[in-house]
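Supplementary Text 2. Reproducibility record for the structural model of the 66-residue chain.

All settings were left at their defaults, and a single model was retained for analysis rather than an ensemble. We include the record here because the model underlies the residue-level annotations in Supplementary Table 4.
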Amino acid sequence: MASAVVDGGARLFTSGTDNMVREWDAATGELIGIPWAGRAVEVLARADGSMLFATGSSEGDISLYK
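Retained model, structure tokens:
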């Protein structure tokens, strides 16, 4: 699990045994958007407020998302 602040709101990012990454609103517990493929997730927040997501697969691939 990873956490970040997006547009002033807390977000949680989870990955599970189904190899899918999910974004959640930490205040409401609601799922945001649709899950995407990834085994592990890291979230990096930048000084300008934008974020960079990194996910890893069981094959050893790493994907970056903005």
